[in-house]
Structures are given as C-alpha cells and as structure tokens.
Amino acid sequence: MTLQAAQKPAAGSKTLYGGKGTRRITVHDIAAAKERGEKWPMLTAYDAMTASVFDEAGIPVILVGDSMGNTHLGYDTTVPVTMDEMTLLSAAVVRGTSRALVIGDLPFGSYQEGPVQALRHATRLVKEAGVGAIKLEGGERSLPQTELIVQAGIPVMSHLGLTPQSVNTMGYRVQGRDDEAAHRLLRDAKAAQEAGAFAVVLELVPAELAAEVTRSLHIPTVGIGAGAGTDAQVLVWTDMAGLTAGKVPRFTKQYANLRQTLGDAAKAFADDVTGGTFPQEEHSFH
Ligand SMILES: Nc1nc(=O)c2c([nH]1)NC[C@@H]1CN(c3ccc(C(=O)N[C@@H](CCC(=O)O)C(=O)O)cc3)CN21
Ligand SMILES: CC(C)C(=O)C(=O)O
Ligand SMILES: [Mg+2]
Fold it and tell me: Which atom of ligand 1 is the closest one to the Cα of 78?
C-alpha cells in the first residue's frame, strides 16, 4: 500500500473522518471507530459559518466548547459562560452542519447543583439547539449527572485531567503527574465509562497516562495536550488556525495564521477606502 493510500481511505469506505455519508454521525459510529482502531479529529466551532467549513472538510465531530468564553466572548476564563450563550451558539453550529456530530459543553454552574439541574440543561441544549450529545467536566464528582442524562437518552462525553471550569482551585497545570493523581484519573475514566459516557476528553495529562487510560477503556479517549496515544485529538479551532488573541497553550499546533491574514485584509480594505481605490466601477450600480 502506498503512503497516500494508507492515509486516505477509499471514497465510500467506512471511516469516520472524511467519509462521504450524508446522514449525521452518531455515537454508534464513534464506538465503531474505536473497534476499527481508527483515530479521528475533533474541532471546536462557535458559529454556523465556521462549522460549515469544518463539516465540509470532513471533521466528524464538532464541539461547541465553553472555550467560547475565551475565544469569542472576551472573558478571561470559561467560568462566566451561561446556558443562554451556549444555546445560542450551539444552535448556530447545528444549523451550519449536516454531517458532523455536534456536542454542546455544559457551562460552569449548569450541572454542579446535581443531576436534576444537569438533565434540565442537557435537555435544553438538545431541544433548543439540536445538539446530538453534551459534555461535562469531572469523573466521580459528575457521576450522578452522567447517569441521569444518559438514562434520559442524551449521550454524554466526559472531560478529565485539566478541567478549566475548576481553574480557581486547579489552575492550568498538567494533571495526573504523581502516582496517586494518576490512579485517580484512571478511576475517574472507568467510572465515567461505567456511568454510560460514550467518550472521555483527557486534557493536559502525561502522554503515558493518557495511553494507559485509552488501553483500559472500551470507549474512545479524546486528547488535548495528552500525547499521541489517545483515540482522537481535539483542538480549539482559533488556536490551531492562528486566530486566537494572545498566548495559546503549548500543546496546540498552528496550521494557519488567520490573525495575520485577516489583519492584512482589513488593512488593505482601509488603504483602498482612504486612498479612493475602492469601490471601482465593477462594484457600483447606475
Ligand atoms: N483558546 C483556548 N484554548 C484552549 O485550549 C482553552 C481555552 N481557550 N479555554 C479553556 C481552556 C483553558 N485551557 C488551557 C489554558 C492554559 C493552559 C496553559 O497555560 N498550559 C501551560 C502548561 C502548564 C504546565 O506545564 O503545567 C502551557 O504552557 O501550555 C493550558 C490549557 C485549555 N482551554
Ligand atoms: C478544549 C475542549 C475539550 C473544551 O472543553 C472546550 O473547548 O471548551
Ligand atoms: Mg470546555
């Protein structure tokens, strides 16, 4: 097999990424991908336009992350993000996609009170925004929430390791470095799986530990700053495209420099207007 053939599955083949299917991807497709040993990409999106780009690019799973607080809403952390903000932007992402599984993050304060509150807000994201699954942070501490939401028929993605909604107690440090923390993370991951989660995000954990968790679970792991041993990888789209203002985490790879490109376009437009070279005849009506 050529390298190209190894990397690019034939059109129509049963793969999650880049497949040509017209129906929306489900959590069952994701479970099947782990059985095939297939790795898959996930990106965040926060609006219909960007989501449609990723959907057309074959990204099978799109997360409407509460990272919107940092990237789009101008907050310092994800902590202030509200259900209204999540619902509005999640609905836009669903409208912009036809094939990707869209997952909505439950924001801080929307599930910590208990399972009934969690189910109410998960249900809102499904009914009002149309997401196919929700994500919440925490293993053991979010088990009752996970169980009740799954029982209600809503797929749940768990999120372990660095959980940014706990920044005020946790900081933004690598998690699971010592033996005790590593065992706790493994326990959390197994508990999430037991409670019915369909996948687990592992954020900012040592690569060896993330690989061990991945081998120990039958549901897929989605890494971010967790090395190459997870089943899937997720990045915040504005980080990977070079659009985020300011510092981006070291685990991000930058695939474009949209901040430069967009800034250059804005300057070129401004120069045209101030210099009187835009609009031209072809942009005018008589
Ligand atoms: N734009 C953006 N990208 C993200 O990845 C992201 C958000 N926003 N908002 C929510 C959380 C916060 N995240 C963060 C924030 C900071 C670090 C950070 O400073 N990490 C250090 C490493 C720390 C260590 O070595 O322990 C780094 O240098 O990357 C990591 C993840 C990830 N999430
Ligand atoms: C980085 C991912 C996992 C996330 O939770 C977010 O974007 O909010
Ligand atoms: Mg999040």
Answer: 10
Q: Is 104 helix (H, G, I), strand (E, B) or coil?
A: strand
Q: What is the Å distance from ligand 2's center to 237 Cα?
A: 10
Relative to the CA of 66, which ligand 1 atom is closest? 10
The answer to whether 90 touches 129, Cβ cutoff 8 Å, is yes
Atom 30 of ligand 1, nearest CA residue = 249
Q: Is the dihedral of CA 165, 166, 172, 173 positive or negative?
A: negative
What is the residue extent of each domain of the chain? Answer: 3-255, 258-286
Residues with CB under 6 A from ligand 1: 67, 70-71, 78, 162, 164, 172-174, 204, 236, 239, 244, 249-250
pLDDT in tens, 195-244: 999 999 999 999 999 999 999 999 999 999 999 999 999 999 999 999 99
List 134's β-bridge partners, or say none.
104, 156
Model confidence, pTM: 0.95
**Which residues are tagged catalytic?**
203
| Sequence-ordered list of residues with C-beta below 8 angstroms from that of 163, at least 6 positions apart, any chain | 137, 138, 170, 203
The neighbour count for residue 179, using CB atoms within 10 Å, is 8
Residue 21 in tokens: 């299917």
Domain 3-255 listed as CATH 3.20.20.60: yes
